Automatic annotation (TrEMBL):
The keyword Signal applies. It holds the Pfam family NAD_binding_8. The gene is PCYOX1L. This is Prenylcysteine lyase domain-containing protein. GO terms for biological process: prenylated protein catabolic process; prenylcysteine catabolic process.
Length: 502
C-alpha cells in the first residue's frame, strides 16, 4: 500500500478487489455453520476481514487472528522525542467509505491537517512549485502543460465514478470470485485491459503530454509506489484517484484502526508464526490444520475456513508451507517492491535544493522526477500522529522530523547531502507493495475450497481501502459459498439488478 507523504498538489491514493475453482467447500449437508475461522495476518486487510466475517457469520463462530509481528502490519509508527510518526501507510482518501465507517464505529478521530506546499525536484532545480495562490497554480499548470491536467482529471473521475459502484454491490451482498470478475463488473473489458497496459501508454493515447507525464505523473508514482510510469494503467489510476481531493489520517496513528477492528470483531488474537496449513479430509467434508509457533510453544488447531491476509510471494518469506493438497497449490507469482522509509530528526540542507538561506525555503514536501542518480523518491516534513491545538510545522532553519522515501537505505553521504546535520535516523525497510509489471497475471482469491487469499487485490492496486474492500469481498464470498448461495457470486449486469431490487 502506498506509504505516502501528505501532498496538496495533485495527489494520491485508493480503492478495490476480490478465483474460485469448483463448487465444493460448502457447508456440511446438515447446514451447520462453521465453528472456527482463522485469519493469518493482522494488518488492515486481516483485521477488516475478521470484522466482516463476524458481521456475516454471527456471534457463535470463533475467529482466530494470527500475526507474527505487531498488529497493524504495514500501518506502523516510530517514536522520535516522545512523539510518534507514521512510518507506513499514512494517507486515506476522502472517498474511502470502508475506512471512514471503521473510524466512525471505533470512535476514532480525524487527525488535524497541517498545511504545507509541495514542489517537484529534478536533481538540479525545482521544475514545479506550489504557491499560496490556487489560481496562480492553475495558470502555471496551463502555461507549462496545456490542457493535459484537465484530460487527466476527466479520465480519473470517469474511472472513479465506475469504481464507486463496488460499495453498492457490497451493500447488496454481492461477491466476486476473482479480481478479474470484480474489475469486469465495474468497468468491463476496459478495466481489465488497464491491468495489462502501461500508464504512460494510456495517458499518451489520452492526449496527455510527455512533459506532464515526466514532471507530474512520474513523481506521484515514485512517492506512492516507488516505481515509474511503466506500471499498469489501472494501478496508476488508483494512485492518481485522490487528485485535488480531501486526504485524511487517524488521530493517534492509522494502526489504531487495526487494533480497534480486532476488538470489534471479538477475535482471538494469537501472536505466532503460522508455519504449515494442511488439508484434512473428514468424510465428505474437510478441515484445515494450522500449525504455528509462539514464543514458548508449537501448537496446531483445526479450522473450517482460513483467510490468508499476508503476502505469499517468495521474496516476502511468509514462512507458510502447504501440505496435503492434491493437486498442490499454485505458487503465487511476482515479488514485492522494496522501499525504505527513513525518519530523520535533523536540519534540512536547503542549499542542495538551491536555497542557501533556509528561512526562504517554502516547501514541506519535495517530490522527484525519474532522473538517473537521484537517490530518493521524496522528502517531507513529518507531522506527529497526535497534533495539538497549538502545533506548528517546524521551519527549515529549525531541527525537524522528516520522512524520506528511497529505493534502498540511505548511505551516510546521501544523508549528508539531504541534511546539514541530524540527531537520529530510524529506518524501516518495507516490502511495501507489489513490483508492478504490465503483463502480470492477477493472483487468485480462492486457493482451495475454503482457503482464501486476500492480498491478490494488491496486484490491481495497493492501498488501505483496497485491502478493506477485498476483506469485505472475501467475507461475503466465504459466507455465500458456505451456504450455497451461488446467485450472490459473480452476477452479471449488477447495476441493473440493484436498480430492479430498489
Amino acid at each position: 500500500m502506498p506509504l505516502c507523504t501528505s501532498l496538496t498538489l495533485y495527489l494520491l491514493s485508493l480503492v478495490f478487489l476480490g478465483e474460485t475453482r469448483g463448487d465444493s467447500g460448502f457447508a456440511p449437508l446438515d447446514g451447520a455453520p462453521p465453528s472456527k475461522i482463522a485469519v493469518v495476518g493482522a494488518g488492515i486487510g486481516g483485521t477488516a476481514t475478521a470484522h466482516f466475517l463476524r458481521q456475516h457469520f454471527g456471534p457463535e463462530v470463533r475467529i482466530d487472528v494470527f500475526e507474527r509481528k505487531a498488529v497493524g502490519g504495514r500501518l506502523a509508527t516510530v517514536t522520535v522525542n516522545q512523539q510518534d510518526y507514521e512510518s507506513g501507510g499514512s494517507i486515506i482518501h476522502s472517498l474511502n467509505l470502508h475506512m471512514q465507517d471503521f473510524v466512525k464505529q471505533l470512535g476514532l478521530k480525524y487527525r488535524k491537517s497541517v498545511a504545507g506546499k509541495t514542489a517537484v525536484f529534478n536533481g538540479k532545480e525545482f521544475i514545479l512549485e506550489e504557491t499560496d495562490w490556487y489560481l496562480l497554480d492553475l495558470f502555471r499548470l496551463w502555461w507549462r502543460y496545456g490542457i493535459s491536467f484537465i484530460r487527466l482529471q476527466m479520465w480519473v473521475e470517469e474511472i472513479m465514478e465506475k469504481f464507486m459502484r463496488i460499495y453498492k454491490y457490497q451493500a447488496h451482498g454481492y461477491a466476486f470470485s476473482s479480481v478479474e470478475e470484480l474489475l469486469h463488473s465495474l468497468g468491463g473489458t476496459g478495466f481489465l485491459n488497464m491491468t495489462h497496459r502501461s500508464l504512460s501508454e494510456s495517458l499518451l493515447e489520452l492526449g496527455v503530454s510527455q512533459r506532464f507525464i515526466d514532471e507530474v505523473i512520474a513523481p506521484i508514482m515514485r512517492v506512492n509506489y516507488g516505481q515509474n510510469i511503466s506500471i499498469p494503467a489501472f494501478v496508476g489510476a488508483v494512485s492518481l484517484a485522490g487528485a485535488q481531493a480531501n486526504l485524511w489520517a487517524v488521530e493517534g496513528g492509522n494502526k489504531l484502526v487495526c487494533s480497534g477492528l480486532l476488538k470489534l470483531a471479538k477475535a482471538n488474537f494469537i501472536q505466532a508464526q503460522v508455519t504449515t496449513i494442511s488439508l484434512h479430509l473428514k468424510g465428505e467434508s474437510h478441515q484445515y490444520e494450522l500449525s504455528y509457533t509462539t514464543q514458548t510453544d508449537k501448537v496446531s488447531d483445526f479450522y473450517d475456513i482460513v483467510v490468508i491476509a499476508t503476502p505469499l510471494q517468495q521474496n516476502v518469506n511468509s514462512g507458510i508451507s502447504f501440505q496435503g493438497f492434491e493437486p498442490q497449490l499454485p505458487d503465487i507469482a511476482g515479488f514485492y517492491h522494496q522501499t525504505v522509509a527513513s525518519i530523520v530528526h535533523g536540519y534540512m540542507n536547503c542549499s542542495y535544493f538551491g536555497f542557501p538561506d533556509p528561512k526562504l525555503f517554502p516547501f514541506a514536501s519535495v517530490l522527484t522526477t525519474d532522473t538517473p542518480g537521484l537517490f530518493f523518491n521524496s522528502a517531507a516534513s513529518a507531522c506527529p500522529v497526535n497534533i495539538t491545538a497549538g502545533f506548528r510545522r517546524k521551519q527549515p532553519q529549525e531541527a525537524g522530523v522528516y520522512k524520506v522515501f528511497s529505493p534502498k537505505p540511505l548511505e551516510k553521504n546521501e544523508l549528508k547531502t539531504l541534511f546539514k546535520s541530524y540527531y537520529s535516523v530510524q529506518v524501516t525497510d518495507w516490502q511495501a507493495y507489489p513490483h508492478y509489471g504490465s503483463t502480470q497475471e492477477l493472483p487468485p482469491v480462492t486457493l482451495h475450497d475454503s482457503l482464501y487469499y486476500l492480498n491478490g487485490i494488491e496486484w490491481a492496486g495497493s492501498a488501505m481501502e483496497m485491502s478493506s474492500v477485498a476483506a469485505k469481498n472475501i467475507a461475503l464470498l466465504a459466507y455465500h459459498r458456505w451456504n450455497r448461495q451461488l446467485e450472490m457470486i459473480d452476477q452479471k449486469d449488477l447495476m441493473h439488478k440493484i436498480k430492479t431490487e430498489l
